[in-house]
Amino acid sequence: MKEAARAASGARVDLLLIAELVEPGSRVLDVGAGDGELLALLANTRGCDARGIEISRAGVNAGVARGLAIIQGDADIDLADYPDDAFDYVILSQTLQATRRPKWVLEQMLRVGRRVIVSIPNFGFWRMRLDLLLNGRMPSTENLPYSWYDTPNIHFCTIRDFVALVEEVGARIEHATALNGYGQKVRFNLPWAVWNLLGEQAVFLLSRGK
User: Could you name the domain of life of the organism this protein comes from (predicted)?
Assistant: First the structure.
């Protein structure tokens, strides 16, 4: 994430957007919690009962050292162990593309949480398209810095791909925000095709469809 995409508080802009979508005092599960940056933000600014699962031992240790409730777990397996409606919100930040079963993970999140918040990097961003067109190689950016052979991101998608997945699992988009390469919001009233071109990443608030 670019330094320009961080607020004065030092928090990532996408994490601040996520926190704004969460009602104060909510029960929250952060899937792929990393070192607990989002959990700490939710606890400190929204008064949430925030818990997390993280696959890496280093991330778990870092979060626990900060006094956060993080356990080691794999989203591709362990979400099945949580009961229905266990949380008000289940959050997956910049992690869906690293899961082995993205559709299953999203379905489980919608089962476990009354609402789901997902943020994704957008592989359809214009700079990535241009880099692939001009150089003929898989793009590497500050937001997606890995080489193709060592990336943890195994299921790249675009904003339009994710919207199609949401429709396929029968969920409803309650709110969405796209951020450009400078961490600024792309105008809300633009169609998905334009967001797909101008948005480097996006944040979605989802609920179960009727």
Answer: Bacteria
Q: What are phi and psi of 117, to 5 degrees?
A: -120, 125
pTM: 0.89
Q: What is the pLDDT of residues 192-208, one digit of tens each?
A: 888 899 999 999 999 99
Question: 12: exposed, middle or buried (C-beta count within 10 Å: 0-12, 13-18, 19+)?
Answer: buried
Q: Tokens 């802009």 map to which residue?
A: 13
> Do 152 and 98 form a contact (C-beta atoms < 8 A)?
yes
Main-chain phi, psi angles of 7, to 5 degrees: -80, 175
Three-class SS string for the chain? CCHHHECCCCCEHHHHHHHHHCCCCCEEEEECCCCCHHHHHHHHHHCCEEEEEECCHHHHHHHHHCCCEEEECCHHHHHHHCCCCCEEEEEEECCHHHCCCHHHHHHHHHHHEEEEEEEEECCCCHHHHHHHHHHCCCCCCCCCCCCCCCCCCCCCCCHHHHHHHHHHCCEEEEEEEEECCCCCECCCCCCHHHHHHHCCEEEEEEEECC
Residue type, position 96, single letter: L
Residue with tokens 């489980």: 108
In tens, the pLDDT along 138-192 reads 777 777 777 777 777 788 899 999 999 999 999 999 999 999 888 888 876 778 8
- What distance in Å separates the CA atoms of residue 115 and residue 174, rounded to the nearest whole number? 9
Residue position matching structure tokens 């280093």: 58
What does the block give as tokens for 192?
A: 């998905």
